[in-house]
Amino acid sequence: MTTHAGSVGKVADTGAVRGRPSVAGRIAGKLGGGLVRAFLLVVGLFWLVPTIGLLISSLRSPEDMSASGWWKVFGEPSRLTVDSYQKLLENGDITSSLWNTVLITVPATVLVVVIGSLAGYAFAWMEFPGRDWWFLAVVSLLVVPVQVALIPIAELFGNIGLFGTITGVVLFHVGFGLPFAVFLLRNFFAEIPRELLEAARLDGAGELRLFARVVMPLGGPAIASLGIFQFLWVWNDMLVALVFTKSGTQPITVALQTQVRQFGNNIDVLAPGAFISMVVPLAVFFAFQRQFVTGVMAGAVK
User: Fold this and answer.
1) Contact indicator for 256, 127 with CB cutoff of 8 Å
2) Of 128, 181, 182, 270, which one is least surrounded by beta carbons within 10 A?
3) Directed axis angle between helix 166-189 and helix 131-140, to 10°?
4) Distance CA 237, CA 250 (A)
5) What is the distance between the alpha carbons of residues 106 and 112, in angstroms, rounded to a whole number?
6) pLDDT tens profile 18-71
7) What are the C-alpha distances in Å from 96 to residues 166, 245, 247?
């Protein structure tokens, strides 16, 4: 009897030890987590080095940039100046190109998000003839390279008077952004429980009200992710802008490339212009990073 009790006690002690990590295990776990965080911090700092270097370069005089590297500023921080940004504001080509970039990026992003959301809902929950075939046709457009369509669409825009205009660039970005938008949002909306939609229909909600009151709030993370992707693609685009814009409608990417070609030593304008062009997408990403991660993880969990 005593032997049996002793065995039970040993088993209980063994179970307790197995269920609870040892001191060495807890220390190793903490060290492992700390090492991972430290590694990720180092990677993040290395990723930000070009941005930090460009920011410091934009705050240095052309003479200092010609004489030494941007890291030398840590020895003489008093030599930093905002004169380059003042010259940037006096450069009409750069300032107008920044405004053109906003006029191109914002409508192209909004139109893709709105039209893609409506089309994604229709393909996910509305019945109409040939729905699956139409969706396959939309998905097949994802494999069409942008380079293939540049010349034909340029000729088309030239015939209808849209070549060289901001409207033409926006339409091009919308046309090539919609297939991915429809594909992404249709798959996300299809995961919404049917019971929610049926309950809203029983309450008398029409399709538009159902879309606005039920689908849009639930699809917020996916829509935010799409908006971030589209904004970054359009803001950083240079190929389409080179083909479809003229001198008065060029975005910041083309304007900076023109400045490099014409004035190779015009670094006091190029550095702050390039930093502004870089920092705007970064600000948008960090502002909506929570929605972006939620949208990406939602698709993985589902």
Assistant:
1) no
2) 128
3) 130
4) 11
5) 10
6) 545 565 555 555 555 677 788 888 888 888 888 888 888 888 877 777 777 777
7) 13, 13, 10
